[in-house]
Each structure stands twice: as structure tokens, then as C-alpha cells.
Design goal:
The chain is α/β, with parallel strands linked by helices. The chain has one domain: Rossmann fold (3-Layer(aba) Sandwich), CATH 3.40.50. It is 38% helix and 15% strand. It is built from 14 helices and eleven strands. A seven-stranded mixed sheet has the order 3-2-1-4-7-11-8, with helices on both faces. β1, α2 and β2 form a beta-alpha-beta unit. α3 crosses α7, α4 crosses α7 and α5 runs antiparallel to α6. The chain is globular, with a radius of gyration of 20 Å.
Length: 343
């Protein structure tokens, strides 16, 4: 899966254990699905997963990893990816914007990415098969990019991996879950929160870092809309307008309270960092309206950009790194006393 700020790769087992505390749960709602790493793991454990994210690239990843099933699409996807891999490079707007005006990819790889995306756009693919193809392309591009893992900027010198040739691979799509076919939504979280489920998993943005700004190239690759761009990073112009209340320090507490009240699931699992705008006491108080709360803390390495440190526009390192680890907290709250009693 793509490199991702806030990825829960190292917290998968604690999250699965928290969800598993709700005995007999079949449907899990993932309200901020991101890369669908959590949704993918939940599907692998047999849950029917409904994954939601308002960004198009994340909804596409969910359509691949949560909604699409291997028994239906595995062989077809392999044949499609082999066909797409033979498409000759074609430099155009994407290559100019992200390889010349900026340096996310070597031009040779940019032209290959562009040709494959044009080929996908010219096909009449069923949504799940298209999502698998787009996910394969995003992941292939991610393996040859020249960033620290976020697209706020690119490296001053080419990353070693950027010189590798782009290669498509079949994403790790799973068979249909025992509890039923999953679903990918592309809605505002407050709207998606009203989807009925047994357990809801909430991993909202927690501070000023905006996922659209951090992954704007993937958004453009999926939307394929040649947007107006700005700045050295060549961000999409809508990065300035599409903002989340969860990125606002004055508004996040009210937003979280509203969201928690809307969720139509008896059990909630909430992931939140100690680097977030809400401290443990405040978040516990918000969740207590839904029942007794348990909190589990886990040490977690900060994302690579934070570990590298802060640099000025000339590339000179400025300031000092304050800390290399943070705490990720899992909050478990349920209207059913048996859930917490099982732990």
C-alpha cells in the first residue's frame, strides 16, 4: 500500500482486538478510510466493511481493497494490468506538471504513468475493476516517487527508487468476507456516520495536516481532471478550498462531538494521536455520552518527514527535532456493557 501519514500499519492488531471485543459483530464502518489498510485487515478477519472517505483517491483504494473481491476480479485484473503495462510512454500535462515543473517522478516514469492513466480513461471498465487498475497505478507510482512520503514537497536530490522503472502489480485484493460484500463510500463523514453498523472505527484528521494537500498528486491521478495548480509543490487549486473541520483547532471538539452523536453503531473504536488537537481528557468526555470508555496507549514512531526535521527553502536544516515518538491512543466505548467486560 502507498506510503501514508497516519498509517495504522503497526496498530492493526490492537485495532482488530478492540473491534473483536464486540462479540458477534458482522459489519464495521470505517469512517475515514485513507489507504484502507484497516478496512483491508478487517475484511481479512471476515467482517463486512463499509469504508468511507471524501477524497477520491481514498475512495478508490477502498473500492479496490474493501469492495472488490478476488474471486470476481483477480484473473481479469491480472490480464488488464499486463495489457496496461505494455502501453508506450506518453508525456503530456501530468509529466510536465509533476516531473518538469516539480520533481515527484523521473520524466520517463511520469510519461509511463500518464500513458497508463490515459489508457484506463479510454476504457469502459466496471467501477471495481477500474479501482483495482488505479490502485495498481498509484502504488506503482509510489514505489518510484521522490518524496519523504507526503506530497507537500519533493526531495532536493532524486531518491534512489525514483530511477527504477515503473511496474504495475496486482494489489492484494481479498476474497469476499464471510459476513458479506464490502462497500466503498465517497461521502462527508457526517453523512456516512448514519450508516448502520455493529462497530464504527473513527480515525479522523487530528491536527493541521490536510490529507488532500499531502496526497494531491494521487487525487489528480484518480480524478484525471488536469486542475489548475499552484506553488513549488504544484498542488491542486482546490486544496485551498476543500478544508476539514477536523483540521481546525477551534472547531475540532464540536465536530467530534457532533460526529460521535451521529454514529449509528453501538460500539465505537476511535484512534487519536497525542499530537492531535484533542487531549485524552477531552476526547474521553466526548465519548462518555455513548457509554463507558477504555483507553489503550501505544508508542509510535513519528512519520519520516518529522524525523528528518525542518529545512528552509534552500535545503538548510533549521531548528531541532523535538521528539521521535508519539503515543497513539485507541478509545473503545460501547452501549453494551458486555463489550468492555470481555477485555
Amino acid at each position: 500500500m502507498i506510503k501514508y501519514l497516519g498509517s495504522k500499519r503497526l496498530l492493526i492488531e490492537p485495532i482488530l482486538a478492540a473491534v473483536g471485543a464486540h462479540a458477534g459483530a458482522r459489519t464495521v464502518l470505517d469512517l475515514f478510510s485513507g489507504t484502507s489498510r484497516v478496512g483491508h485487515a478487517l475484511k481479512g478477519r471476515g467482517y463486512r466493511v463499509v469504508a468511507n472517505d471524501h477524497n477520491a483517491y481514498a475512495a478508490t483504494l477502498a473500492r479496490c481493497y474493501v469492495q472488490a473481491d478476488r474471486e470476481q476480479w483477480g484473473e481479469k485484473a491480472e490480464r488488464l494490468l499486463e495489457e496496461l503495462g505494455r502501453v508506450p510512454p506518453e508525456a503530456g500535462w501530468f509529466t510536465e506538471t509533476y516531473c518538469v515543473e516539480s520533481r515527484y517522478f523521473q520524466p520517463s516514469n511520469g510519461a509511463k504513468i500518464e500513458a497508463i492513466r490515459n489508457a484506463i480513461a479510454g476504457m469502459t471498465l466496471e467501477p471495481e475493476l477500474e479501482a483495482i487498475a488505479l490502485t495498481s497505478l498509484m502504488e506503482a507510482a509510489d514505489r518510484v516517487d521522490s518524496t519523504t512520503g507526503v506530497q507537500m514537497a519533493y526531495l532536493k536530490q532524486w531518491a534512489k527508487r525514483a530511477h527504477n522503472p515503473l511496474a504495475l502489480r496486482l494489489p492484494a485484493i481479498l476474497p469476499q468476507a464471510e459476513a458479506g460484500k464490502g462497500e466503498a463510500l465517497e461521502k462527508d463523514a457526517f453523512e456516512a456516520a448514519e450508516t448502520e453498523a455493529d462497530v464504527a472505527y473513527l480515525d479522523p484528521p487530528y491536527n493541521q495536516h490536510k490529507y488532500l494537500g499531502n496526497y494531491h498528486v494521487w487525487e489528480t491521478l484518480v480524478r484525471w481532471d488536469a486542475p489548475e495548480t499552484y506553488g513549488i509543490a504544484r498542488k491542486r487549486i482546490d486544496c485551498r478550498a476543500r478544508k476539514s473541520v477536523f483540521n481546525s483547532k477551534p472547531r475540532i471538539a464540536g465536530a467530534m462531538r457532533e460526529l460521535v452523536a451521529k454514529v449509528k453503531a453501538p460500539t465505537l473504536v476511535v484512534s487519536f494521536s497525542d499530537e492531535g488537537y484533542l487531549d485524552r481528557v477531552t476526547l474521553e468526555a466526548i465519548l462518555q455520552d455513548r457509554g463507558e470508555v477504555r483507553v489503550f496507549e501505544h508508542d509510535y514512531r513519528r512519520y519520516v518527514g518529522a524525523r528528518i526535521g525542518i529545512h528552509d527553502p534552500q535545503g538548510k536544516k533549521v531548528g531541532k527535532i523535538s521528539h521521535l515518538k508519539n503515543k497513539e491512543r485507541l478509545f473503545l466505548v460501547s452501549e453494551d456493557p458486555a463489550v468492555l467486560a470481555s477485555l
